[in-house]
Amino acid sequence: MSKKILSIFGIIAVGIFIGVTVAGMQIRVITFNTLLRQQTEILTTLKKQQEALDQLTKADHQGPQGNVDWNALLGAAKNAPSNVPPPAQPPQPQGEDFSKVYNIPQDHSPLKGKKSAPVTIVEFVDFQCPFCARFHTPLVETLNAYPDKVNYILKNFPLSFHPQSRPAAKAALAAGEQGKYYEMVDALLENNTRLSEETFKELAGKLGLNVKNFLKDYKDKDAQWEQYIQADMKLADQVDVRGTPTFYINGHKTNARDLQSFKQEIDGILNKK
Questions:
Q1: Mean pLDDT of 231-258
Q2: Cα separation of the two ends of the chain
Q3: Average pLDDT rounded to a whole number, residues 121-142
Q4: R_g of the chain computed on alpha carbons
Q5: How far is CA 155 from CA 75, 105, 115, 182, in A?
Q6: Is the pLDDT of residue 114 over 80?
Q7: Which of 61, 122, 143, 213 could bridge across to 248 with cysteines, CB 3.0–4.6 Å?
Q8: Does pLDDT of 157 surpass 50?
Q9: Contact between residue 239 and residue 207 where contact means Cβ atoms under 8 Å apart
Q10: How far apart are CA 207 and CA 251, in angstroms?
Q11: pLDDT tens digit string along 81-96?
């Protein structure tokens, strides 16, 4: 009888042990599943926030016409888990100092206009940049409005994500060997959405250049053109160029981008002389 009782107790003890072990495993599985579900919810929320912020950034670049899904943005913010730290903010650029005067030597760059002109506009250009193309017309209008008072120097600042900008800069320099540097600059910026060697050849013909000599200078003097471009880019770093186009009037950075703004600054300089 006592052996039966002991056997029963033994069976019960084994059963309790197995039950506790299984329960513990279930608890661990439940805990893991809960953590996994929470992690998934957090990642989903962060993804929604990023999508909404991407819309906001896109709208900021597009201007007031950009469309933002404000419900998505507000919803993402509302549902953000409280225990998730905010994303790190990129460093903010320091404000421009428009009172600072930079020394920008002409060096190898061709000069457009009279050397004795009291006002010099320097521009750092990327030939494939749409903004450089957009603001080139008011710049030309400004130079035409002050034929004896304003001259112009172009410096090259080809951006890495514009693969045709550097070749276009070399095409302009090659055209300069036949005295048509700024004519080629104008033509390249007018056609900056279709830049290629074939386009360079086409534009050289339209400008009345000896196309054979142009192509020879374009290719054979590549090392020289590259040296000029590298010098411009080194100078750009020294004078705090942050993008294209960047304009300077008598060494001062300027926000002028239209004829009226250019005239206002130029007249101010001329009236002081």
A1: 97
A2: 124
A3: 98
A4: 33
A5: 48, 10, 17, 12
A6: yes
A7: 122
A8: yes
A9: no
A10: 32
A11: 555 444 444 444 467 7
